TrEMBL record:
Required cofactor(s): Mo-molybdopterin cytosine dinucleotide; [2Fe-2S] cluster; Mo-molybdopterin; FAD
EC number, UniProt record: 1.17.1.4
Start and end residues of each Aldehyde oxidase/xanthine dehydrogenase a/b hammerhead domain: 31-139
Record carries keyword Iron-sulfur: yes
InterPro entries in alphabetical order: Ald_Oxase/Xan_DH_a/b (IPR000674), Ald_Oxase/Xan_DH_a/b_sf (IPR036856), Ald_Oxase/xanthine_DH-like (IPR016208), AldOxase/xan_DH_MoCoBD1 (IPR008274), AldOxase/xan_DH_MoCoBD2 (IPR046867), AldOxase/xan_DH_Mopterin-bd_sf (IPR037165), Xanthine_DH_Mopterin-bd_su (IPR014309)
Protein name (Swiss-Prot/TrEMBL): Xanthine dehydrogenase large subunit
Length: 779
């Protein structure tokens, strides 16, 4: 046994849990050396696919003539829904309401009707424009107002949350008001568009490389359309160039089309739509219309809430059920409602089916709640922050801890977060200064707002809260890690590798992160709901635990010591009084025939949900945060600047503070875009006109707050037994951007001396800000 003194041994490993470590691919991202699917060397004989899209919003298909398409030079095959070997459906929820290729009816402008396979991508795209399709137009509507006016059906059964006696208590409130808020949608605008490559195998086998957040669903859908079992389909993804929820279900169609053509032609097939096609044919964040009635007292304490959240869902159900459910789950924001009635209204429209987007309905629900607070504050002539604090959930035993869905809020730290930020951002002093500035400024008006975030963490579908991981240790001590989570730039791979390095007490460069594949970890859930680190980190930890238990038992037996005498130290193992370098220890374990591989598994405890009853514990815990934003608007043009933002966000005991800070900053800016410049617009023919960077405006680097102070609540630690007592960070910070809209609202309200609520809808484009200013002038 090696008994050297280890003079140069490290006191700590490189890359432990809770340490700041760069993203494993950061250097590749900035140098352009990170391989995405379109960078993979193309197989010999690769063919390219393109979509044939409808040019009607709602119509019967009378005839399809693809003769000119097939005759175009380089075209190898054209196919329609009739050529699908299995079931012509790619619905993610089994509703069979989303055909892969429309056969007799189109239900949105840009819906795929046929596909073209050609020798080159250019030939396929050009040929797709030559189809001759006859239609019989049907009535269509593309927005919530049109859906309501036409008695549109719902795409899925709505949900209702009810607690207390809102029907009888609303009339008993001292003050009451009614209102309405429009909340816009959002395009994901991932840098890497959708793409899929399918490679045929022998017999019924096919391998698919897909830019997807949900490899197991791609596997299921490909098997569905090919009429083959899941064990014949292997789906791989090393990384995505962004996802944000837009690649949870929307990649299904491209993978399915590529797989069908690959098996038919016996050649590799690639589908990579153009950005315009991608934006036209894939879903977005749901826009909402919120109708509300509030009952409150003279102090501003909420007594009763009755609200309906109507959503533009598109032509099929997709994920609209759980999205609108989560909107209701977050319609309380951080506030206790003694009596509450909330209802969703998932409306069918003749537009592309809307889908998951960072926050998954939660941002829309929370934004509605902040409007409630704003309405009360202006009605009473008070600072909105005072109304917020007055209505916060209380601590256990206060009688103010039960949510509208009957879950107790047991980990509430929102008051501490808000009070700390209020002090460090000097909110009161700055607000008084802004009011004084507005009193004397003729054209430029300022606003400031401090808003909270309370976001529930877990899939509301209980079965999805599970994960697996596969860990191998090789004879040289190097470690192979695979798990069911997908990497889309958020740093999941790095965090889970840190978990494994910490478990074995080895430097992180000893851990090899490998591409997510259904061939190694089966039946995975989507990397979504901010649960990637929680689920996959714990699964990897479980795999490490199994291997370590075997190694400890081996060492205890071999060297005749107790298990407690076997300790994993940085890059070595202490057995009794001796220390062995980790690679040597592993080599000896191998020769002793110790199994050095394990499949880890984790399922989130404590959660359950009864949707029909509207009761349960859908969330394992809550993540909290707060943001204070100051803005300036030009009342002559409606243009504005984000002058300063201060953020304090709760990630529990951070697994990687550097990555978490990046997530908070990025989420805030994305949320800011949703609420300010990003506007989706359909014309009267149901055509999406904002389908490219020329017409759809995401924030620029220059749009970020001029002063941007972001801190993590370093004192926070998850009360639940999550991995490292950390908390999710993917989605919750997006809602910090609500402070931007609220600050803009205050600036607008100053035009009427803060006497009325401006009711500024989202997105608050300069045009909307200007129109709101003009309304205030008429008050």
């Amino acid at each position: 046994m090696d008994k050297s003194t280890f003079e140069d041994r490290k006191a700590i490993i490189a890359g432990p849990m809770h340490g700041s470590l760069r993203h494993d691919s950061a250097h590749k991202h900035v140098t352009g050396t990170a391989d995405y699917i379109d960078d993979i060397p193309e197989p010999t004989g690769l063919l390219h696919g393109a979509l044939g899209l409808s040019d009607r919003a709602h119509a019967e298909i009378l005839s399809i003539d693809l003769s000119e398409v097939a005759a175009y030079p380089g075209v190898v095959w054209t196919f329609t829904g009739k050529d699908v070997p299995g079931v012509n459906d790619v619905s993610s929820n089994g509703s069979h309401d989303e055909p892969l290729l429309a056969e007799t009816l189109v239900q949105f402008h840009g819906q795929p009707i046929f596909a073209v396979i050609a020798e080159t991508r250019d030939a396929a795209r050009r040929a797709a424009l030559l189809a001759k399709i006859e239609y019989r137009d049907l009535p269509h509507w593309s927005d919530i107002d049109g859906a309501l006016a036409n008695g549109s059906p719902l795409v899925i059964t709505p949900m209702t949350l009810h607690r207390g006696e809102p029907e009888t208590e609303m009339p008993n409130a001292e003050r009451r008001l009614r209102g309405q808020m429009r909340i816009g949608g959002q395009e994901h605008f991932y840098l890497e568009g959708h793409i899929a490559v399918a490679i045929p195998g022998e017999d019924d086998e096919v391998t698919v490389w897909s830019s997807t957040q949900h490899p197991s669903e791609i596997q299921h859908i490909v098997g569905h359309v090919l009429d083959i079992p899941s064990n014949a389909v292997t789906v791989n993804v090393r990384r995505m160039g962004g996802g944000f929820g837009g690649k949870e279900t929307q990649g299904n169609q491209f993978a399915a089309l590529a797989a069908i053509a690959a098996k038919k032609l016996g050649r590799a097939i690639k589908f990579r739509p153009d950005r315009d096609e991608d934006m036209s044919a894939t879903g977005k964040r749901h826009d909402f219309l919120v109708d509300y009635e509030l009952g409150f007292d003279a102090e501003g304490r909420i007594h009763a809430v009755d609200a309906t959240y109507a959503a533009r869902c598109g032509f099929s159900s997709d994920l609209s059920g759980p999205v609108t459910d989560r909107a209701l789950f977050h319609a309380d924001s951080s506030y206790f409602y003694p009596h509450v009635h909330l209802t969703s209204k998932p409306l069918k429209t003749h537009t592309v089916s809307n889908t998951a987007f960072r926050g998954f309905g939660g941002p829309q629900g929370m934004l509605g709640a902040e409007r409630f607070i704003e309405e009360i504050a202006y009605a009473l002539g008070k600072d909105p922050l005072d109304i917020r604090k007055l209505n916060f959930y209380g601590q256990p035993g206060s009688g103010r801890t039960l949510t509208p869905y009957h879950q107790e809020v047991e980990d509430n730290i929102i008051a501490r977060v808000v009070e700390e930020l209020e002090e460090t951002a000097e909110y009161r002093t700055r607000r008084n200064a802004i009011i004084a500035f507005n009193r004397d400024s003729r054209y430029i008006r300022k606003g400031i707002a401090l808003t909270p975030v309370k976001f529930g963490i877990s899939f509301t579908m209980t079965a999805f809260n599970q994960a697996g991981a596969l860990v191998h240790i090789y004879q040289d001590g190097s470690i192979h890690l695979n798990h069911g989570g997908t990497e889309m730039g958020q740093g999941l791979y790095t965090k889970v590798a840190q978990v494994l390095a910490d478990s074995f007490q080895v430097d992180i460069d000893r851990v090899k992160i490998t591409a997510t594949t259904t061939a190694k970890v089966p039946n995975t859930s989507a990397t979504a709901a901010s649960s990637g680190s929680d689920l996959n980190g714990m699964a990897a930890y479980d795999a490490a635990r199994q291997i370590k238990e075997r190694l400890v038992a081996f060492a205890a037996e071999k060297w005749n010591v107790t298990p407690s005498d076997v300790v994993f130290l940085p890059n070595r193992v202490r057995v009794g009084e001796s220390e062995i370098p980790f690679p040597d220890f592993i080599k000896q374990a191998y020769f002793a025939r110790v199994q050095l591989s394990a499949a880890g598994f984790y399922k989130t405890p404590k959660i359950h949900w009864d949707r029909k009853a509207g009761r349960g514990t859908p969330f394992y815990y809550f993540a909290y945060g707060a943001a204070c934003t100051e803005v300036s608007i030009d009342t002559l043009t409606g243009e504005y600047l984000i002058d300063r933002t201060d953020i304090l966000h709760d990630v529990g005991r951070s697994l990687n503070p550097a990555i978490d800070l990046g997530q908070v900053e990025g989420a805030f800016v994305q949320g800011m875009g949703w609420l300010t410049t990003e506007e989706l617009w359909w014309d009267d023919k149901g055509r999406l006109r904002t389908h490219a960077p020329s017409t759809y405006k995401i924030p620029l680097a220059s749009d970020r707050p001029k002063i941007f102070n972001v801190r993590l609540a370093e004192w926070s630690e998850n009360t639940e037994a999550t991995i490292g007592r950390s908390k999710a960070v993917g989605e919750p910070p997006l809602m910090l951007a609500i402070s931007v809209l609220e600050a803009l609202s205050m600036a607008v309200a100053s035009v009427a001396d803060y006497r009325v609520c401006p009711r500024l809808d989202a997105p608050a484009t300069p045009e909307r800000v200007l129109m709101a200013v003009e309304r205030m002038k008429r008050v």
